[in-house]
Specification:
It is found in: Cell membrane. InterPro entries: Cell_synthase_bac. Strand 15 (243-264) and strand 16 (267-288) form a beta hairpin. Helix 5 runs parallel beside helix 6 (291-301), helix 5 packs across helix 8 and helix 8 packs parallel to helix 10. Helices cover 17% and strands 37% of the residues. The protein has 694 residues and is of the alpha+beta class.
Length: 694
């Protein structure tokens, strides 16, 4: 057991290479928490994208699971499917943590290079199946330290890797040390493209700060601005007014330190050694013969159809456009469940049968105030005495419940208000079926149901309009009209990663067609700040702040932000810690405006932290100021003209500022003086009494 725990701890902590084998835990691949399978007959699925550098022959899947302590182990079963093929079935054992190990082959991967893993259970707590149906102790956890052991393969490396599939393995973007607006735009769209492949930790480097250990990345820049040691790698030369994607591939031998787990007296211990390893190198160049051609390449970055259909090592771009045809519902106020990614699940059995659908506020063209949820479904008709119900849940809360009947047809509606839905939502449609007289032993497959994802829909009834803009309305507040991304010229090199987060969020919906303009703050006419939506990444000293009189925070004056619960200072402009400050508000023409500011030594990290913080599932509907630091600490504020949690220090007199800074010390000194005076008077009185008595 000690060996097992040591190995599991090792897997959780890192993704490790050993003799050309990469161990990738479920947690490292996006499943941060254990996956729980509920019910007597439950199921859960995992989808993992297998990138071309891995060879499935010789690779292995290892799953650890923890069954409920209440189960009768010898009457409970776990089944494992890869794709549609069953590969493992067994009774549960007595162990608290159990293990399944399966060898993988090329046949296990789908044509689109996904590995689908399904775990299905049949669990027992008592000998009466009918009593087990809704027992809350019916569960089994798939542990997040389960892993894939994937064999790295250089075989067919040059043939298998191309532009269409190379994005899946890239985790870094490299740009010139003194980037132009074209470079920033290229980084932003490349970042957005990488994030759509579900990459979590995307790194952004200046080309002179690229670590030697990073060998698989995207490099952006005009052909003339590429580093001298990288320019010869591009074997195709674009002409003027011509863009170019070029994928450089090479195999090189590197000396590296590898870690092996060695069994020492029953314990697995890490042992490091120096080894030479043959590794592939991939660089995708995003470039052009001149600025006009470079811009065409950047435009093509935003077109998934072009990238997904480029199966060669280079693509010359002579013409690039991003024109998305609008649907009949131009305002995107009505979305079918199929549009938001829903699939028709055929549900059969007894007890609770659920289908889940995920949607975002930004899927609509505006933040919805009310959303009508209409579910259309078919189900097997109920016999006399059968009990059937249909329930709708949103984010785990029950919204509605109704009885099923003999018709076999369901068409139901429920409307939710703005307090019930969040920025990111999970909608669950649940059928609950119990046969006549509770006789369920022969009825587990008698009931079936299916939600019609084409006819079922979500419809926004009213836009959520307020006098003050909040992060709850980001990014959909920028869906209509033209958006400009503005940056302080001296801070441009630090803003690339944050721009990538912004571009991703503006297009993280079912109709991604938001292509903002990029411009330096010194080049923006004041009139443009009124007629366009503005997203600005500025230094706190940028003169553009004078054009934002409606901003919650004025950076021309020193200020402090307080926690209204305990009146403690949360943030002060004079802080030396690297902080990012984001504020969102309406401009003078009711245009959406978002301003991000960074302070301290680590400006790039501060900008990136602020851009990530405002996209999270926020707990309040009215926050318009966010403070975040490079250590992932975050504070949200709702600041308006009457706020008591904002204080401008320079509006006070010198005496008032002195009192605010030292009032506790002054009061303490006064108390000490009072105490000393009391003791002095008391001693004098005692001496007087002694003289009187004498």
């Amino acid at each position: 057991m000690k060996r097992l725990l040591t190995l599991l701890a090792f897997i959780i902590l890192s993704t490790t290479s050993f003799a050309q084998t990469t161990i990738m835990s479920f947690k490292a691949m996006g499943h941060d928490d254990d996956e729980t399978v509920y019910g007597m007959s439950g199921a859960t699925s995992f989808y993992f994208k297998i990138t071309p550098q891995y060879e499935l022959n010789g690779s292995k899947l290892v799953i650890y699971f923890e069954p409920s302590q209440a189960l009768i182990r010898e009457k409970s079963y776990v089944n494992l499917f890869i794709g549609a093929k069953p590969v493992y079935s067994a009774r549960l054992t007595k162990d608290s943590i159990q293990k399944i190990s399966i060898n993988l082959t090329r046949a296990d991967v789908s044509p689109d290079n996904y590995l689908k893993i399904a775990v299905k259970t049949l669990l027992t707590i008592t000998d009466d199946q009918c009593r087990d149906l809704d027992n809350p102790a019916m569960w089994l956890k798939i542990k997040n330290y389960s892993y894939l052991s994937l064999v790295k393969s250089n075989k067919n490396f040059f043939n298998n890797i191309n532009i269409s599939n190379c994005f899946d393995s890239k985790t870094a973007i490299v740009y010139p040390s003194n980037p132009t607006l074209h470079d920033l735009k290229a980084v932003a769209w490349a970042y957005s493209r990488l994030k759509k492949t579900q990459q979590k930790n995307i790194r952004v480097y200046e080309n002179n700060k690229l670590p030697d250990t990073v060998r698989n990345y995207i490099m952006v820049g005009n052909i003339s601005s590429l580093p001298a040691n990288k320019r010869p790698l591009v074997k195709v030369t674009p002409q003027n007014n011509q863009g170019l994607f070029y994928l450089h591939k090479a195999i090189s031998t590197v000396t590296d330190t590898i870690t092996r787990m060695v069994d020492v007296k029953g314990r697995l211990l890490p042992v490091k050694s120096v080894s030479q390893e043959v590794v592939p190198t991939e660089i995708l160049f995003v470039t052009g013969g001149d600025d006009a051609g470079y811009e065409k390449t950047i435009t093509a970055l935003g077109n998934m159809n072009i990238l997904n259909s480029t199966f060669g090592d280079y693509l010359l771009v002579n013409k690039a456009q991003n024109q998305f045809f609008k649907t009949v519902d131009e305002n995107r106020s009505k979305l079918s469940l199929k549009q938001i990614g829903g699939v028709s699940d055929f549900l059969s059995g007894i007890g609770s049968l659920k289908s889940a659908f995920n949607f975002k506020n930004s899927d609509f063209s505006f933040t919805p105030k009310e959303v009508e949820i209409r579910i259309v479904a078919n189900y097997s008709s109920l016999n006399p005495g059968d009990r059937g119900f249909f329930n709708i849940y949103l984010n785990g809360l029950l919204l509605s419940s109704e009885k099923l009947d003999a018709s076999g047809k369901l068409n139901t509606t429920v409307t939710i208000n703005r307090y019930q839905h969040h920025k990111y939502n999970t909608l669950e449609a649940e059928f609950r079926f119990y046969p006549n007289n509770g006789n369920c032993k022969n009825s587990f497959t008698n009931f079936f149901a299916e939600v019609d994802v084409d006819k079922s829909y979500l419809e926004s009834k009213n836009p959520f309009i307020t006098s003050d803009l909040s992060f709850y309305q980001y990014p959909e507040a920028f869906n209509s009209g033209v958006t400009k991304i503005v940056v302080t010229k001296d801070y441009a090199k630090y803003a690339a990663g944050a721009m990538g987060e912004i571009i991703y969020e503006l297009n993280n919906n079912i109709n991604a067609n938001n292509f903002p303009e990029f411009v330096y703050s010194v080049d923006v006419p004041p009139a443009d700040l009124k007629k366009n939506n503005i997203i600005a990444l500025l230094s706190k000293d940028d003169k553009m702040f004078k054009e934002f009189p409606d901003a919650p925070i004025n950076f021309e004056r020193n200020f402090r932000l307080y926690n209204t619960d305990n009146n403690t200072i949360v943030y002060s402009l004079s802080d030396t810690t690297s902080n990012g400050l984001a504020q969102i508000f309406y401009g003078r023409s009711n245009n959406a405006t978002l301003v991000l500011t960074a302070t301290g030594k680590h400006l790039a990290e501060a900008f990136l932290s602020a851009s990530k913080s405002i996209t999270e599932q926020l707990s309040t509907l009215s926050s318009n100021v966010c403070i975040s630091d490079v250590n992932n600490n975050k504070y949200l504020f709702n600041i308006n003209k009457s706020s008591d949690n904002l204080e401008y220090i320079d509006t006070k007199s010198a005496i008032t500022r002195f009192w605010d800074s030292y009032n506790l010390y002054i009061l303490l000194a006064i108390l000490v003086l009072i105490l000393l005076s009391f003791l002095y008077v008391r001693s004098k009185v005692q001496k007087s009494q002694e003289l009187f008595n004498d």
